Amino acid sequence: MVYIPRKYRHYNAVLYLMFAECPIILPVLILTGIASHDTYTTRLWQDGANNGFNSAPNQIVYALTNGNSYAVPMVWSSFLYNYDLVIGVLSTFFILTKVPVHVLRFFHPPVSAFVHGALCVLYAAAASFQAGHDTTDSRHPQNGPPWYITKSCSVAYSPGNVGYCKQAKALFAMTVIATAIYFAQTVLALISCFTTKEEREAYHQRKEEKQEERDAEDRALREYEEILKSPAFGPGMPITPGLTPMQSAYFPGQHPQYQYGMSPYTPHFGGFVNSAPSPAAVAFTGYYQPQPSSISTSPSSDLPLRDPHFDVKTPSFGGRQITVTEVEQPYFPPPPKKATK
């Protein structure tokens, strides 16, 4: 059985690093968006050539005129600012996605190690490209990072390039910081991937307990289905001792066991049913059989379904019987008479 770790050993540390990543990735996205479409790369290249720090952009024309091939240094190429823009957008998408997923405990350590490891490699490559060398001009070789990283922006040949120099310097600094953050997140995720023996045993124990719970639920459902399918469950099921099944007052004529326990005067359509047991019915079925009683049709009765033979006992309270005359009757005033002209 393959065990996939789903918990971090340092959950809060990973969450704090994600929050610290936000103020780094957003400036990276902004700066790479500004640098795209060669906003200042060629200008900084030409400014360094004017100061004698690196080669000049017009060497491409000289090389093509003489029929020679010329490879633009990576630090001044269009591939660099396009590459920076792509990883800026990609990392912004991941930071907007992984934070809520991590809070919901779905961003497992193996996935985190893969994502952050890939981002760490991409940002490390971006930092390496930005700090690349330029040795295409033998008279002005640049063996280390470009001048806008190693020198102050105040040495710019053109004052208008000072702001671009600061943007390029800030982009390089943000790229290095993002690389360090992704490296730390990758290390924390890898530490959580290597579990101990106690953690694996606890995981297997929890899994066995969940499996036992599911098995118990399945057994209970199967037993319930067997009870429903058994012939004893239905109209012919005998009465359980101590229980009195009741019958609906409006559907007489069911099985005798459901008529047991009916009141002496159970109402139904058209009158009352006298459920007093007959000896023959009891001897034959062992249950009470209801017998239809006479329906009162006396015009003197104030209720059409009242049985004149039904004895209404006077209720008592505290040993004292209450008569009908003692009960306060509601007063209904007579309807108003029509006025005569």
UniProtKB/TrEMBL annotation:
Residues 200-227 form a coiled coil. Residues 331-341 have a biased composition (Pro residues). Residues 290-341 are annotated as: Disordered. Keywords: Coiled coil, Membrane, Transmembrane, Transmembrane helix. The keyword Protein transport does not apply. Residues 290-303 have a biased composition (Low complexity). The chain crosses the membrane at residues 12-35, 80-99, 111-131, 170-191. This is MARVEL domain-containing protein.
